Every structure is written in structure tokens, then in C-alpha cells.
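Box 3.1 A note on notation
Throughout this textbook, protein chains are presented in two layers. The first layer is the amino acid sequence; the second is a C-alpha cell string describing backbone geometry. Keep the layers aligned when reading.
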Amino acid sequence: MGTRRANGEGCIYFNGTRNVWEGQFRYYDEKQKRRRKKKLTGKSKTEVAKRGKAFIKEIEKDNEAIRLKKKHGKTVQEWLELWLEKFVFNKVKTKTYERYVCSINCHIVPYIGEITLMELKTETIQNMLNQLIETGGKDYKGLAPRTVNSARRMLIGSLRKAVDLEIINRNPALSTSPFKVAKAQIEVLSYDEIKAVKLAAKKQGEVEYIIVLLALTTGMRIGEIFGLHWYDVDFEKGELMVNQTVVSTNHGYILQTTAKTKSSCRTIPLPKVTIDALKLYKDWQKERQKVLLNKYIDKTIVVINQQGNYLDPSKFSYVMFKRILKRAGIARRFRFHDLRHTHATLLLEQGINIHVIARRLGHSTSRLVLDCYGHIVKSMQDDVVAAIQEIMKVS
């Protein structure tokens, strides 16, 4: 009489035709129905038995996870996917939505995605945030505190909705601690560097020059410059309107009919150098339209690619603008957005009112200007003291 097989051992035998050991293992699925696994093979009976036991153990683990899910409800991953679809997709701009998706898939789901909402604890979330800061993931360096804080804020918002819908009683992410964010370093061009960049852009091409000039003389964001149309430019009044922006997405660029914020929709008075340059540029563009004829896509767009269509902001920032910097001899790290910082800094140094600068940049409050350029304002205090001393002189 043969001995009874131990639990998980299955039926193991030697297949002389294939010259391998084979085994079949029975298991129970999540509904407690008995199933038969396809054959497992190995070089020895011990190897097949080991593989069979590991398989059954994995099945039991999966079944336990399914039972917990049924008992406690949705997992974090399932809830975040539902939250994106039902409460985010049609309420935020495309770029914001893509950032949410990236943060969920890359930073949250790999760590706590399989945990159910009912089991999610503050300590678990904080451990996840700490890991993101330290390692950024299995194959990455640590993430920037600003990136991790952004993921934290998004998680707080999604769980707040779960509380509102009475899926969970409390928001475990609220008690987590954000990370200190170092103040971003602002790079500004000197007067000599401004001349060099303008000259390099002009040598690069008409489109490149007008983009750089607009950034330096208006402080517009790159998307706002790329979304500019000729009907937004009033040559008689010497001003332009900002009311739309071109945004780079995972599927190319899109034109958003509203700018970044409500205050971003604004009128910007233009200096004569910019007005004259725009007139010359428009004449050049008309000549290009004659060459391309019906192949020219849109005659109303100011910043164009070779076919007369919108130019992709990302391509310009990461490729074309770097070529301009190289030609200008600027080797340090300098972003296109720093042209906007350069514009604001020049105005502050000329003593222009902060409220005027804030409105020109499209900021909702002057506080944003002070936060970015407070060090410049502080350095100007010496001029204020000198002015007061001059005023108070007694003859």
C-alpha cells in the first residue's frame, strides 16, 4: 500500500519519453472550487515538488488577497483609477491630468496600489513618501521633494473624495508630513548675455529670434508665445493680448483656449523694438506663405513651424533653444523659462512697481513676484536708504 502524498506534493512521475520529471498539482481557486494545474517539469522529483509547492503557495496568497478585497472593498489602485475617470478627467487640463496619471502609476501604485482603502494607514503612506525621497523607485534615484509633495497632495485630494462618498471614515494621508522644498535657483542673463542670446537667435532663424525677443521684452510663458495669433497683436495701440496657450502633451501639442490662470489672460504693452521686429517678421512670414501656397496651414499663427502650423514648445525648449545658448557661448544651465525671470529682474532693477510687474507676468498677486524675486527687492533697500538720506539732508 502506497503512502499518501503530503499536501501540495501532487502527482509526480518520471516521463521516460521526454526524459524529465513531471508533476500535476491540484489547488482551490478563490471560490473554493478544486482545479488541476497543467504539468510542471524539472530535472528531479525534488525540483518538481518544490515548484509545485511554490505554485500552490502563490495561489493561496492570491486567494487571500481576493478575499480581503471582497471584505474591505476597493484597493488604492482601483479607487485612484475610478477617481481619475469620474472626478478628474473632465475637470482639469490635459497636462494636469497627465501629471496625475504619471504620479499614480509611477509613484503610488507600485508601493500601496494593492492595499485596500479600509486597510490604508498613515504610517504606510508616510513610508511610501520616505522611500520616494530616498530611492524614487526600484531603478531610479531619489525624487525631488517638490515631486513627492505633489504626489502627496494628489493622494490627499483623492482620499478626501473617498471620505465624502463615505467609502472610508477618515483620510489617512492628511496626517503625513510634507518635505521641505529648497527655493528654486533663478538664473538671469546679464546685459552682455542678453545681446549674445539675441544675436545667436537671429542667426538661428526668424522664428527663433521673434520667440526669444518676445520672451525677453514681455515676460510671456513659452506656451503663451506659441499660442499667439496675429489678431492678438494690435500694432496701432502697441500691445498684445494673451488668452490662449500651446501645451506639450504625451500625444503632441494642444491649443488651450484659456491661459494658465484667470489672471494669465492679460494685455501687455510692447516696446518699440518688439513692435518693429513683429512687423518685419510678419512681412517675412507673408513671403513664406507665397512659397508654400495652399500647403501653408494657418496664416493667423505668429510662431510657426515649417508648414505654417503650431510649433511644439517642448521641442523648442529642449532642442532649438539649447542650440541658441551654445551659439551664444552660455555653458551654464539656463532654461527658456529663465528668460521670463530675466525680464522680471530687469524691470525690478529699473524700479518698476511690483504690482505692475505682477500684472505684466500674469500673476494673480504681487506676493508671487516677491516670493520669486525677494532677494532683488531686498538688495534694492540700499538704494532706498540712500534716497531717504538725500531727502532728509538739511541744507
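The longest helix spans residues 45-72. The chain is about 55% helix and 10% strand.
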